[in-house]
Amino acid sequence: MSDRSPIPVVVNGAAGKMGREVVKAIAQAEDMMLVGAVDLAPSVLGQDSGEVAGCGPLEVPILNDLQGTLVLATQQPIQGVMVDFTHPDGVFENVRAALAYGVRPVVGTTGLSDEQLSELSDFAEKASTGAIVAPNFSIGVVLMQEAAVRAACYFDHIEIVELHHDRKADAPSGTAIKTAQMLSGFGKTYNPSVVNEREILPGARGALAGDNVRLHSVRLPGLIAHQEIIIGAPGQIYTLRHDTTDRAAFMPGVLLSIRKVTELKSLVYGLEKLL
Ligand SMILES: NC(=O)C1=CN([C@@H]2O[C@H](COP(=O)(O)OP(=O)(O)OC[C@H]3O[C@@H](n4cnc5c(N)ncnc54)[C@H](OP(=O)(O)O)[C@@H]3O)[C@@H](O)[C@H]2O)C=CC1
Ligand SMILES: O=C(O)C1=N[C@H](C(=O)O)C[C@H](O)C1
């Protein structure tokens, strides 16, 4: 049994698909304590976050007041952490608020623009407060991305297909954008044209990211989160694929980030930097 105080954690988006999974994971982690649960969904206001998550009562009600809940997190023996799985529209303000209160953000919500990310990074640096933004908390995805980066030393033709459930707000996925960013900066332009290509229906060839990596998004009920990186060369196709079959897959990465963010003094973008 450790004599250190548990890390106080606020979960923002606590009633969502990811938020419920995070509440369960924190309830089971001996070195963490859930001190606040926030969500804007009116149907869960005032309900016990543990009951909503399906892990039994935790005596932490779901509130719709992030600022008030962050204040609670500042009144704990050690500095708190805010885990955010909400919506692309609100995440920037949520993270700014957490940093302003000295509560360290661990952010899974996707959709932050490069400018927003850079602004949050400057803000964290000035506040000397750790923050982690990870478009994907699954360790399997990081391994897939790293294999793609290695393959990029030898191959020039790479397209990414990401497939998600039909309740996803943003496209392309944060994971696909991050993968393209990781493949960029090696002084090459991917997918050089070998014909004068005509896109008969706009969008048919996907979006261009990074150094010309093509991204394609599929949205269907029945899917959770999946990504293929397809690498082509004369006479061969190398396909990397990751399938999330349960959101529990993200929890080891989320818990690791909650622990690591307490040691940081600035913003880190990407789970791969913590492994
Ligand atoms: N980094 C990673 O590994 C992963 C990232 N994600 C990302 O996390 C985000 C959430 O995903 P998911 O859990 O599936 O989404 P859900 O829609 O299931 O959950 C989001 C919850 O947050 C609530 N909410 C929306 N805006 C706010 C806000 N400003 N403040 C507080 N609560 C808010 C929603 O309420 P209401 O329904 O009323 O809007 C909902 O209850 C997405 O951006 C997704 O891409 C998802 C999986 C893994
Ligand atoms: O919305 C989701 O579900 C997911 N979003 C993240 C993304 O945009 O990459 C991570 C994962 O793919 C699940």
UniProtKB/TrEMBL annotation:
CDD domains reported in the protein's UniProt record: DHDPR_N
Subcellular location: Cytoplasm
GO MF term list: 4-hydroxy-tetrahydrodipicolinate reductase; NAD binding; NADP binding; oxidoreductase activity, acting on CH or CH2 groups, NAD or NADP as acceptor
Binding site for NAD(+): 13-18, 48, 108-110, 134-137
All residue ranges annotated as the Dihydrodipicolinate reductase N-terminal domain in the record: 7-137
Active site: 164 (proton donor/acceptor), 168 (proton donor)
This protein's GO CC annotations: cytosol
Record keyword NADP present: yes
Listed PANTHER family: 4-HYDROXY-TETRAHYDRODIPICOLINATE REDUCTASE 1, CHLOROPLASTIC-RELATED (PTHR20836:SF0), DIHYDRODIPICOLINATE REDUCTASE (PTHR20836)
Protein name in UniProt: 4-hydroxy-tetrahydrodipicolinate reductase
Species the sequence originates in: Rubidibacter lacunae KORDI 51-2
Gene of this entry: dapB
